[in-house]
Specification:
By secondary structure, the protein is an alpha+beta fold. The protein has 32 helices and 29 strands. The chain is globular and about 115 Å long.
Length: 1152
């Protein structure tokens, strides 16, 4: 019995001839996981009888699924990490349009959507907008046809749960056709074999590249072809077209009137408006529903929010004080009813003491009655008018003064009488403490910012339409502070598609307490309204050329900035295993129904009376669950055997069990551990592979031993400038002015920075390089501070896939086998290379691949060196010792071994001419694919990182595919071996794509690597991997010669970092005079330097630089538990945000 199949033992029986001669024994690999294993129960059995169709481009997948949706007759199930209703599936046909057509047929299907409910502050995938648009589909239907329930996270990660996601990507049509893999129905995924950098017909959010700052601003008065989230909410809740159309007309009239008033103020002010006004007004939530009128809109919101917020604070405090008085009265009553009251020596008469205590009691009773009356009056006001609020605040202040006088009198009485002295004193001390806290902390925070905001909002309200330059400028400063430092402010900015580049840890916490309950309240309300929508869908939504306003009103400049090409894999199944994919959706859907069944979802208290979108008809009622029955078994179709895999936390499994019971479905006993099927299957495939393994994955982060700097003189690199304000050029000059010293001593003091001064410096462009760098550090520190406060992070990576690959290659080295692993990875995770979570992910990837103590490359090199020494007569122990000895460069001898004999590491890249100059961008590898020996493929949503593989974090979905008609081929160029023909065809199609053999657009600058066609059918032949490596090396060198900013061996994580430091030594140097930039900076695009273009590029493959970051240490001590980041938070792109970091998401575990 030997461990030849991952963690699954396998027995080989020897068969002999009659003469006793042993016949050759061959192991037939077992690709499918067993029902029970230490990594959790299998979600489904292996099922023969499936037909498969693979998609190697998003374009082909989108076209196929668009047709399937429109042809659906019974049901449509859609779940995804990111589902965008306006994603273009076929030319200008959106997902929403396909669903609209499907639901308007005579045989219309029932539609169920389940996007992940993203946490908004950390990452916003557009799930709220998709939910709103989905519910609007019911408008005008005689019978409801569309349900949508954003899937709240169901991980086992305790306090960190908000950072984990549902990462599955799946669509099932009629329980007959299923799609699963790595492609979300989301922006940026639509790509073909050409990997063009040019925008083509893409615009707005479809013009996708989160690695660089968007430069093109959609001016406020040009935003009418776009919708904001706020308008979409209005369209969904106001039932129909009429009211929302009026909303737009009013906004348009308001804008025209306001523009005229502003421009009539004179030429000087008009020039100022042209220069600054648009960006200011855009920040104020300008958009389709209200552009310039957004100034008034935000003033109303601020006024409505701050006034009730004061009342809410008074409510909480007065309830607290009332509880203290209840306790004090109980003690007073007990004391006064006692026959004998103990007196101090200072007591003059018994009657005097008793009289004083009785007076205290009467006044306490009166105060208690006043508090009760105030609370009753406050609760009766659903939406406070300013007059109501002022009256209530005046009454509350009067009660406070009465309590202060009462406490003083009580303290005077205490020395004279001991009435239940210990308890009375304790309650009195507690009441006094509450008073002090209220006066020093709570009341003071209805503070300078709130006071100034209220004063500003009153001025705006009184000014009518004629706003002065000073009023708008002052509002810009105050609202920026409000958005950065309060959860309600951040919520408002998000609601109007104008995100803030920096948000304090406190604001993040507050935002999370608002955004998710708000989304759930909206869902509960819309779910009820969907039963009786009579009007037609909102016409602006129904028009394909009406798009959501990009965040901040910013998008890529298509003339000079490249989109990011996207590489991914998906599969369509028909046959037996479709049943399991339907069952996965239904189990998850019913788990959510059970969680919220009968519960009321309330508007977050801080928004009550603030958002005017709601009225008394939208009061919360108990949620009425809509359970789905178990799917029917699906007949066989085709010859492929498939097994559906999941990563599923125990919490999800328990809630699925509860959902099945509530739905009346037969269910297995409750699970005892999470499911880590994806990890189990990958371990088995790796261990069972006999010739080669081909991997495409968005991440490679796995256990690597100690993380230590490669060089004795390793430096922190640019990480210091991102985490430490003292590392910024100009710190000494501006520290006192901005009060940075208190922040540096304690990052929790973020609120003590002088933001008024900072806003002034940003507006006047004083020390622009310094202020941009400061914003970056503040964003990073606030993110780190928030994560530290949540939960202790894990100390190292846990998933063993790196070990499994190393062990399989070590076995090949030991046995002298011809074996090779190909791995295709992105250059770096999507997002700007100055985001600390992304930089930490680069660190983890490089440690896993090449730099860590037990990295994949080092383990291969050690095994090769030990084998070599043993072949020359050394014992195993002697060989190990010899391999670790240092050479003349003080490097271990084993590092001289040519690891490339067993491993090929590739990135993907292309280039193009934009704006008259050459530009380059990585081709983003988003696939989650493993192929072994052309016999088995594992395709799904699971990345190679802890989030996806361990089972207790993100939910994942994948399929193992193998079998079919027996076909043999010479995959090593010598002998014939059995393969699964569809799997082999998939790999060949992918290689043809990556070698540019399928590129058809004449504008593609990359030439086909035609000489690599000979490798397509012989992936295990040494000649194949040598040819591929040589071309990848040549391409990398050609790119590096003309693009100094791209990653390369021995370079900083920012390859231009040494030159950047030197160029920015002067603290207040204007951005246009800083001549060295990285692509994540606006200056890189505004002040271009590169003019040469690369030559002799063949194919899209480049060699992964295994020694990138070798001489610096980029571990930010970021919370490893939440890495990798799923998807990056889009950057806003103004000068103040160009260097702003991204708060970690659940990176689409991506980290997506």
């Amino acid at each position: 019995m030997t461990q030849m199949n991952g963690i699954q033992a396998k027995q080989l029986d020897q068969i002999n001839t009659q003469e006793g001669k042993a016949l050759c024994a061959t192991s037939a690999p077992g690709w499918f996981i067993r029902p029970r294993s230490p990594l959790g129960d299998a979600f489904s059995p292996q099922r023969p009888g499936n037909d498969v169709k693979f998609f190697t481009t998003g374009t082909d997948y989108f076209k196929d699924i668009a047709q399937a949706i429109k042809n659906a007759k019974k049901s449509i199930f859609i779940t995804g990490w990111q589902v965008n209703y306006e994603v273009r599936l076929d030319s200008e046909t959106r997902l929403w349009d396909c669903l609209y057509q499907a639901t308007r047929k005579a045989d219309a299907p029932d539609v169920y959507l389940m996007p992940w409910l993203s946490p908004k502050a950390a990452v916003d995938t557009g799930d709220l907008e998709t939910m709103l648009a989905a519910f609007v589909l019911n408008a005008g239907l005689k019978q409801r046809k569309v349900w949508c329930f954003p899937a709240i996270q169901q991980s086992d990660m305790g306090n960190l749960g908000t950072f984990f996601s549902h990462h599955q990507k799946m669509v099932v049509i009629d329980n007959e056709i299923a799609y699963v893999g790595g492609i979300d129905l989301a922006y940026g995924r639509d790509d073909d074999n050409n990997f063009r950098l040019a925008a083509g017909t893409r615009t707005a959010q479809e013009l996708y590249n989160p690695c660089i700052p968007p430069l093109f601003e959609i001016e406020g008065h040009k935003q009418y072809p776009y919708m904001t989230t706020a308008e979409l909410i209005g369209a969904a809740l106001m039932e129909g077209d009429g009211i929302s159309k009026v909303q737009r007309k009013i906004a348009w009239a308001k804008d025209n009137k306001m523009f005229n008033a502003m421009r009539s103020s004179g030429k000087e002010f008009g020039e100022w408006l042209d220069e600054k006004g648009d960006s200011v007004l855009r920040f104020f939530g300008a958009g389709a529903a209200d552009t310039v009128g957004g100034v008034i809109q935000i003033a109303e919101f601020v006024h409505n929010q701050l006034t009730p917020e004061n009342i809410e604070a008074w409510k909480r405090t007065l309830r607290q004080w009332k509880a203290s008085f209840d306790a004090l009265l109980q003690e007073l009553n007990a004391g006064l009813n006692t026959a004998e009251t103990r007196l101090d020596a200072e007591t003059t008469t018994f009657e005097h003491t008793q009289q004083g205590l009785a007076t205290l009691r009467r006044e306490a009773q009166a105060i208690n009655a006043a508090i009760s009356g105030w609370l009753l009056q406050a609760e009766q006001h659903k939406a406070l008018t300013p007059q109501d609020a002022q009256k209530l605040q005046a009454q509350a202040s009067s009660i406070q003064k009465r309590i202060e006088r009462w406490v003083t009198q009580a303290e005077q009485q205490i020395p004279r009488a001991k009435v239940a002295s210990a308890k009375f004193k304790a309650h009195l001390a507690r009441l006094k403490s509450h008073l002090e806290i209220w006066k020093s902390q709570v009341a003071s925070k209805l503070d300078q910012l709130s006071t100034e905001l209220l004063a500003w909002s009153e001025q705006v309200r009184k000014s009518g339409q004629a706003l002065s330059k000073e009023l708008i400028t002052r509002g810009t400063e105050l609202v920026n502070l409000w958005v950065e430092q309060t959860g309600v402010g951040a919520f408002y900015a998000w609601l109007n598609n104008t995100p803030t580049p920096i948000i304090s840890a406190k604001a993040i916490e507050e935002f999370d307490t608002i955004a998710t309950p708000f989304a759930l309240y909206l869902h509960s309300t819309l779910d009820r309204l969907a039963e009786a929508q009579k009007a037609q869908p909102y016409s602006y939504l129904a028009t394909p050329n009406t798009r959501l306003l990009p965040k901040g009103g910013m998008m890529l400049d298509s003339k000079t900035q490249p989109r990011m090409p996207w590489h991914d894999v998906h599969v369509r199944l028909e046959g037996a295993s479709v049943y399991d994919l339907s069952r996965n959706f239904i189990s998850r859907w019913n788990s959510l129904q059970a969680r919220f069944d009968g519960k009321k979802q309330y508007m977050p208290p801080l928004l009550v009376g603030v958002l005017t979108l709601f009225d008394d008809n939208l009061e919360p009622i108990p949620f009425k669950a809509h359970y789905l029955p178990e799917p029917q078994k699906v007949p066989n179709k085709g010859a492929i055997t498939a097994q559906v895999l999941r990563s599923a936390p125990l919490k999800l499994l328990h809630e699925e069990h509860k959902g099945a019971q509530r739905a009346g479905s037969a269910s297995l006993p409750a699970a005892q551990s999470c499911q880590a099927n994806c990890l189990q299957a990958m371990l088995q495939a790796i261990s069972s592979a006999q010739h080669f393994i081909y991997i495409e994955n968005q991440f490679f982060q796995s256990v690597y031993g100690k993380s230590i700097p490669e060089e004795l003189n390793a430096t922190p690199g640019p990480m210091t400038s991102l985490m430490n304000v003292k590392g910024l050029p100009g710190y000494d000059r501006y520290a006192a002015r901005l009060r940075l010293d208190e922040f540096e001593e304690n990052p929790a003091n973020l609120h003590k920075i002088d933001y008024h001064e900072l806003a002034d410096m940003i507006r006047t462009r004083e020390a622009e390089t310094f202020t941009n760098g400061l914003l970056q550090v503040l964003s990073n520190q606030s993110a780190m501070e928030a994560l530290r406060a949540i939960q202790k992070p894990q100390t190292h990576l846990l998933n063993p896939l790196n070990e499994a690959l190393a062990e399989r290659i070590e076995r090949a080295i030991e046995m002298g086998e011809n074996f090779h692993v190909y791995m295709v990875l992105p250059v770096h995770p999507e997002g700007p290379l100055n985001a600390i979570n992304l930089m930490t992910q680069v660190h983890l990837t490089m440690q896993s691949l090449s730099l860590g103590e037990h990295s994949l490359i080092k383990r291969i090199q050690r095994a090769m060196a030990i084998k070599g020494f043993m072949d020359r007569g050394k014992t195993e122990e002697e060989a190990k010792a010899q391999a670790e000895k240092k050479d003349i460069n003080q490097r271990p001898l084993y590092e001289q071994e040519k690891w490339q004999e067993y491993l090929t590491l590739l990135n993907l890249r292309t280039w193009e001419m934009l704006g008259g100059r050459p530009v380059t961008e990585q081709i983003y590898v988003h696939s989650k694919l493993l192929i072994a020996d052309d016999r088995v493929a594992i395709i799904g949503s699971a990345n190679i990182n802890d989030r996806s593989q361990l089972g207790d974090r993100d939910s994942e979905l994948a399929v193992v595919l193998s079998g079919g008609a027996a076909v043999t081929t010479q995959i090593d160029g010598r002998c014939t071996y059995p393969v699964c023909q569809p799997v082999q065809q998939l790999r060949v199609a992918l290689w043809r794509k990556l070698f540019a053999l399928e590129a058809s657009d004449p504008a593609v600058k990359v030439a086909p690597a035609s000489h690599l066609a000979s490798t397509l059918m012989q992936p295990a032949a040494p000649a194949s991997w040598k040819a591929i490596q040589n071309q990848a090396d040549d391409n990398a060198k050609a790119y590096e010669e003309v693009f100094p900013h791209i990653p390369r061996n021995e370079a900083s994580i920012w390859p231009a970092w040494p030159q950047m430091k030197a160029a920015r030594a002067t603290a207040n140097l204007p951005a246009e005079q800083v001549d060295v930039f990285m692509p994540f900076e606006q200056g890189f695009w505004k002040h271009p330097r590169h003019s040469q273009h690369p030559t002799e590029i063949k194919g899209f493959i480049t060699a992964l630089p295994v020694n990138w970051t070798r001489q610096e240490y980029n571990d930010s001590t970021f919370n490893l538990t939440v890495l990798a980041q799923i998807e990056p938070r889009p950057s806003a792109g103004s000068s103040a945000t160009a260097l702003a970091g991204h708060f970690p998401s659940t990176p689409d575990n991506e980290a997506t």
